[in-house]
Amino acid sequence: MIARVGLTLDAAIQQFLDHLRVERELSVATLAAYGHDLTAFSGFATTKKLPELASVRTIHILEYLSALTENALSARTQARALVALRQFFRFLKTERLCEANPTEDVDLPRFGQPLPTFLTVAEVDRLLAAPDRRTDRGARDGTMLETLYATGLRVSELVKLRLSDINFDAGYLTTVGKGGKQRLVPLGEAAVAALRSYGEGARPHFLRPGRGANTDALFLTRLGRRMTRQAFWKILGAYARAAGIRKEISPHKLRHSFATHMVERGADLRAVQAMLGHADIGTTEIYTHLSRAHLRTVYDRFHPRA
Length: 306
Fold this sequence. Notes:
By secondary structure, the chain is mainly α.
């Protein structure tokens, strides 16, 4: 690997971390994880007398992963370390600090990844039917559930929605996800209808004079304040019990359900990635595994010689 002469590994790591912090605006926790993994590799490189970036070869990456195995670190930890190194060397290559990426031919360690649990379509239907939408509270709660399932938003994104974030005519909403990145998410007809009905009917009844009567927050509590994640979590749990759903329930389960049902019905993985706001397609690929598991279940149930 040809790299800038004299550029030390530690100096290159610092440039990468500065890039993540300033340009990609990653969270403090994510930056700390990258820093931990890359510093660990730098320590290993020092023992191999590889102080300069130009000294690192693919064989050294393989030796490092082997050392992690010998230290009884899990395949998941090895995979995270390799992901950090891949991102690091891709950045260096893009910035022309090196001409080759020594991680390109190194495969991720295999490990069993637990599949996220999700609701069936029938369970989602029961959940969405649980609120009494003839009441203000039921209209609000039903609209929140409808919006969450229609978009796959994170619960933090849901409760931060403003009335001005909804484009009723075009049928989409705007949200700001991790890293402050804004994205557009389509809305189905049922969600648009629920949002329109709630916005014109129930929402004004939650506004309280002197308590944010002019707020643009979309979903409000009975006190006229913005809905919180904790409050919505409780609301969701109550409706799940009323709908006879025995699975452990959380807002993230509806996000998983949205993605799983989309992929099962043939949605393009890149489109699902964009709607979920995943920075890496690898995060979205878990739903292809869920889809295959669904196909296996269907096959085992209906094939006469399964």
